[in-house]
């Protein structure tokens, strides 16, 4: 007998077909309990085009504004600036899921009911993230979403459902959280042809989204294609140009992620690639034909585990795109000496108080991890270091090309760490430059050069070492050392933990839940990266001091 899951899938496949979706060389299939559904190869296709989805099926802000139920109420609020495009889509998903006769039902039924991103963690699971940026981001986002729900969403969603004919409605925060997670885990930035985003012909208004729930498999109600909006969606362009619009494309959104993607997607405006104008299609990036039932993954972008866990609810072990975020707390500047002058200098230099340090930067540092030449060539190059010229008293440091830290951030740290006498020297150098009347403002590069000439690197690097030490202490005080995390992962077993993390022998150890496992993988990465970048910063500091920088 057909399982309920299989029945839902069949209903969804019919719905896709009725709405013009073509599964040419692939099928949608349950992957595993961790990934959920995915797209798999089914037959070989000579042109590599595996799946074609007409874009009238995309759930975008335009689509919502066209919706007979949500459109009128939302347009007014959007015009008043009370709803942005993302919230429009999230509101639409919240309401559609609760409507009795939604045209999107076969699609919505296929979506997961719960998620594993950090917003869905239990209190205990969340504790595993203490000391990480993700812990703070999750707490803050939960608070913001709750406020948004109570202040705006609940009233509007309840009203829309009652307008739709429901006798009463009690939309909950969980309904909203569900829609929020659907949006963030499935929305794409879609490059729409301008003509499609702003159609002006009658013909463009005729196509429909159909529900296969109507008689004879045909829809008895229609949603027309997007029409013209005077104020545009996100980017206004001219005819023939591309308009980038965020939205969910049912079908394509069943692709799971892999850094080594087997496929990619594109928009076919004219239909020259697929025969379907204004469509999005999935095509194999290289290897074709695939072995039967190979999972066709795409890349969600170079995302570290922090972003993957926050948005998508999974992590990658040994993620090559992992990164560390380091910041100097904005509020702390008020407490440093000469904060006002330093803030002015920071602004003049367009200095950054935070930076992202991707793991790949380490390949070009003092202690590169052992990687093969091939891998080395694939990695991104470290940002070119600036070589300032001034009166030339300070020599260019020997480590200039081995320093892995972005100059925008080091500039900020140099400025914050400046001593009183250094500050006076910088000011007098800049006065010398612009003349006694100060007829012009010194340029960004000139201020940076002056600060470097006076201060060198050691003050900034010392501050960086301090920041990284504090970060490591926070992480370890909250959840133990790297070694203890490695030990915990070794002990992981049980069905919630991805296959490759289970322990084959079972000594009665408790299995780790999947969310806890993911938290440990993520925080272990943060500890490792902090330690490695700290080593780089300490070494650079030693060199700077010994070279008089
Ligand atoms: C765009 S959807 C892909 C379809 C999804 N698997 C489903 O069943 O609806 C993204 C979600 O798929 C899952 N996913 C995608 N790639 C994954 C991966 N490499 N490992 C684990 N889960 C993954 C995550 O739950 C993520 O939030």
From TrEMBL:
Biased composition of type Polar residues is found at: 205-216, 224-236
Q: Please name the PROSITE patterns in this protein's record.
A: SET
Q: Which residues form the SET domain?
A: 24-301
Please list the GO terms describing molecular function.
protein-lysine N-methyltransferase activity
According to the record, the residues making up region (Disordered) are 205-236
| Protein name (database record) | OLC1v1039055C2
Q: Which organism is it from?
A: Oldenlandia corymbosa var. corymbosa
């Amino acid at each position: 007998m057909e399982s309920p899951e299989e029945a839902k899938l069949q209903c969804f496949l019919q719905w896709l077909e009725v709405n013009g979706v073509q599964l040419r060389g692939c099928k949608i299939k349950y992957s595993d309990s961790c990934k959920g559904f995915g797209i798999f190869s089914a037959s070989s296709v000579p042109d590599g085009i595996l799946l074609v989805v007409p874009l009238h099926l995309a759930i975008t802000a335009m689509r919502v504004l066209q919706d007979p139920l949500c459109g009128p109420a939302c347009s007014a609020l959007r015009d008043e600036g009370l709803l942005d495009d993302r919230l429009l889509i999230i509101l639409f998903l919240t309401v559609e899921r609760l409507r009795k006769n939604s045209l999107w039902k076969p699609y919505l039924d296929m979506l997961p009911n719960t998620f594993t991103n950090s917003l869905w963690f239990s209190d205990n699971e969340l504790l595993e993230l203490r000391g990480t940026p993700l812990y703070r981001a999750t707490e803050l986002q939960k608070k913001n979403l709750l406020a948004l729900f109570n202040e705006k969403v609940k009233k509007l969603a309840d009203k829309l459902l009652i307008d739709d004919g429901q006798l009463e409605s009690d939309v909950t925060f969980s309904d909203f959280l569900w829609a929020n997670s659907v949006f963030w885990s499935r929305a794409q930035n879609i490059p729409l042809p301008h003509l499609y985003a702003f159609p002006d012909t009658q013909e463009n208004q005729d196509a429909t989204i159909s529900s296969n729930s109507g008689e004879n498999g045909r829809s008895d109600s229609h949603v027309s294609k997007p029409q013209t909006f005077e104020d545009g969606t996100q980017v206004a362009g001219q005819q023939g140009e591309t308009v980038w619009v965020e939205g969910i494309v049912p079908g394509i959104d069943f692709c799971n992620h892999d850094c080594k993607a087997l496929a990619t997607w594109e928009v076919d405006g004219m239909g020259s690639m697929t025969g379907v104008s204004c469509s999005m299609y999935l095509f194999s990036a290289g290897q074709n034909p695939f072995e039967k039932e190979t999972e066709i993954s795409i890349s969600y972008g170079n995302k570290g585990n922090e972003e993957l866990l926050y948005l998508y609810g999974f992590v990658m072990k040994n993620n090559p795109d992992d990164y560390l975020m380091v910041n100097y707390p904005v509020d702390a500047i008020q407490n440093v000496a000469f904060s006002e002058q330093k803030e002015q200098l920071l602004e003049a230099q367009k200095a950054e108080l935070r930076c992202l340090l991707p793991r790949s930067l380490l390949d070009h540092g003092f202690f590169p991890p052992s990687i093969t030449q091939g891998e080395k060539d694939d990695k991104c190059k470290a940002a070119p270091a600036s070589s300032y010229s001034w009166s030339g008293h300070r020599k260019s440091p020997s480590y200039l090309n081995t320093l892995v830290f972005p100059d925008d951030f080091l500039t900020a740290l140099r400025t914050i760490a400046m001593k009183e006498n250094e500050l006076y020297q910088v000011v007098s150098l800049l006065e010398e430059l612009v003349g006694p009347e100060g007829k012009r403002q010194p340029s960004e590069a000139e201020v940076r050069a002056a600060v470097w000439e006076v201060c060198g690197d050691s003050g900034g690097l010392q501050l960086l070492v301090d920041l990284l030490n504090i970060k490591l202490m926070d992480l370890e005080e909250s959840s133990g050392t790297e070694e203890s995390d490695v030990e915990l992962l070794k002990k992981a077993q049980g069905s919630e933990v991805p296959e490759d993390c289970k322990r084959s022998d079972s000594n009665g150890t408790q299995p780790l839940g999947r969310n806890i496992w993911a938290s440990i993988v993520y925080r272990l990465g943060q500890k490792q990266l902090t330690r490695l970048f700290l080593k780089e910063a300490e070494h650079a500091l030693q060199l700077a001091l010994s070279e008089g920088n």
